[in-house]
Amino acid sequence: MTSVGTVSQSLSYAQILANAQKTTQTASTTTSGTPPSGSSATSVTLSDAAKAALAEKDFATVTSDARATMDALLAAAKLTSPLKDGALAIDLSKVERRELYAMSTNADQKFTVEEQKAAAIEMQNRFDQALAGPTAVGRVTGAIKGLYTAALAYFDGMGPEEKASATYADQRSALEQMLKTIEADPATLPGAVANDPIDAYMKRLADGETGELRDIGSVAADARATLDAFYKSSGSSKPDYSEFDSRSIAAVALNAGSQFSLTESRAASNEMRTRSASALLQSLKSAGSSTDPGAFAQNVISLYGAMSPEERSAAGWSDNLYAAAVANYQSASKLGSLLGAATDSSIFGGTSGGSGMSLTDYL
Q1: Which of 95, 222, 297, 343 could be bridged to 328 by S-S, CB 3.0 to 4.6 A?
Q2: DSSP state, residue 356
Q3: Regarding predicted confidence, which is higher, 263 or 349?
Q4: HEC string of 308-361?
């Protein structure tokens, strides 16, 4: 099994979307030095030092903010617990990572057992989502390295309190050790090193315990409430989806629960397609820096694998797109193997005659 480049694997769906949106926003605020047409907002650019100062709130403040955040979410949902039948009953997807950690560890004894469990579920869901794209790629390529590079990127985004924990130290060390082992032997599978979070993820994946999403009806209800609040506060009748995550936009575009007007659904559909087009463009640019001719196909597979069924439907991404990406990768891989056969070395790295199980076998 040929190994694949790391550039394309390191960009998750969320990262590619974020990069695309950042590029669009930067262009709109710097082209003329004035806000975009129709906006009265003032564009403010913060220095790196200012951004760092904002990010470095002391943990006591983070904990107080987390308590306030949880109270607000429960009040908005008219609930007393964030869980129902052991699953999340409120949307924690927009809660800041350090606040989630404060909730999960019961910082300053401010959180109930159910609130701690809810935060832990959300944190696990975010880790699983970061690995969804690389897992989709691994199913096709048989390569495992992408899961470890994605996991390391996820760990690097954790807050200072989380990074100070023994669990973080053990798991990050395991990730680094596995990457070194994979470099020496690409056939290495999860489980070869203790405390490997990818091994635990694979076991949950096998048991069907990953990728659990909130019911689209609940997502739609939250989107409806957010739009109504926006209309009331802004005085505008035009929907604004700039702060919506892609699944919320998909819920509006698909008119889940028949809660949205034709105008709202059309605007959401346009927004979803714009974002997905930007993501494809970013993945093409990312693939351009790779020596692997199948890199773009892998990026498309990763994007597709990280999207929910509702997001794919709203973006117009059919099974045919996925099938075409898989066929493209397989053709490029076959060509690489043929070209490398003369020297018994794959142009993608490693040897063309590798032995042992691959991630495809493992999955």
Answers
A1: 297
A2: S
A3: 263
A4: CHHHHHHHCCCHHHHHHHHHHHHHHHHHHHHHHHHHCCCCCCCCCCCCCCCHHH
